[in-house]
Amino acid sequence: MSTIIMAACWPLEGMSPSQKSVLISLADQASDDGVCWPGVGTIAKRTCLSERAVQDALAWLQAVGLVFRTYRANTSTSYTITPARFDPSKAPAARGRTKPRGANGAPGANGAPPADGAPPADGAPGGANGAPGGADGAPLGVQMAHPNHQLNRNRTVTESLQPASPPAVKVKAELVDEKETALQAACRATWNAYSDAYERRYGAKPVRNQSVNAKVKQFVMRIGHAESPAVAEFYVDRVSDSFVVRKVHDVGLLLSGAEGYRTQWAAGTAMTGTRANQIDQSQSNFDAADEAMAILRQRRAEASTC
Hints:
The protein has eleven helices and six strands.
């Protein structure tokens, strides 16, 4: 789960509950780059929607710029979430509803269209021009179509819909949280620096998943946006401590020793076990020399007082 993408999607308005549910489900499964690839069936189970409703919601999200779909052969579709491109003015118009009509535009008994000029069912007297019987030519027990309904060329009734009020949108593309955008860019730069150095050292790309993304984000927040990429690269290129090498320069070790590795990077010297022992031995020698000088000064002071 990417908290960066989730934080950018939650404030968005101007969409239906099903569209928002599908968007949040995608964000919950996305990386910090906004990429995920769940199947329509998986999204339907997570949102308690039908697959048709999920497909309609995905089409709407793509139309307004929130989701970009990449269709891949023999595998699931890849989705890229782009909250910064949300433009509700591009939303497709709502579709009207239709009702079946009978022959010559008149509804038939029980909703079935009667043949042209055929007598009504059960021998009921017919109306004028072969229309079904009843008051004013209306069939008994069948509701007349609303006068505002219009007959199209396919003999279906298209209901006139009230014009929908424009959606109230409080969050536009240009109002996306700048702090989150800067953090996302720093995380991407830090990962790229770490990944390139890792591939140079080990000849393979490091594994990236939600856990790794979370650790990279915490590392960037602790070290700072500007220095994080350089420190991550220094960690892989220069740190050769035996424990770190056995762990193949794990991202978790980078996070746990973030401040220490930043100090080593700033000093331009990596701390190894051998160097640490040398420093410890040197400090012990200095301490012993200081202690000897203190004893010598004390004896000289005692001799001068005699």
